[in-house]
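Example with several molecule types.
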Amino acid sequence: DQQVKQNSPSLSVQEGRISILNCDYTNSMFDYFLWYKKYPAEGPTFLISISSIKDKNEDGRFTVFLNKSAKHLSLHIVPSQPGDSAVYFCAASAKAAGNKLTFGGGTRVLVKP
Amino acid sequence: DADVTQTPRNRITKTGKRIMLECSQTKGHDRMYWYRQDPGLGLRLIYYSFDVKDINKGEISDGYSVSRQAQAKFSLSLESAIPNQTALYFCATSDDRQGGYTDTQYFGPGTRLTVL
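Resulting structure tokens for the full complex:
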């Protein structure tokens, strides 16, 4: 049973518009959440993270929102650019479990010019 | 220069063969990990090592073994490959000195393994 789920396998958005990627988790022990971005033929690269003591973290065009009561987080990309076309993975960890990462299945984002 | 390298990048093998995937890092990190990626399932942890003398099973370790030859090297072996081990394999590293929060993990480029 997947503890971290990304229910949208793909997303298509127009350049300049907002991309919203969603992620749900079931393990209430998770206390740190990360987003990774992956281009074809490359490994995932770290994008942004948030700890459970916060509900928002922003880094340039990327903002992550955490709703602990709903066990839900989202990644907003504003404005979307063609170079943002990639697969995005949500990941979560629990300090009590040794900080190992549990990944969602990924969402493929296509930004159209 | 890549900080985390994996060899080979692509491998096709037959059922029953022994395969070794190698990972090297120049980041000086103590922690290393092996994951496999399957469509729709994201990355799943196979094994991890927090230092040279430490080896731990991950979520899906059956059918795999690892060796931590040095701080910079962590290899994954499939003793007798089977078709459902066809996947993309990633090595990752992290530094355990990031103030108590989860270490950001840095990934290699991956090895695409096909078992016929």
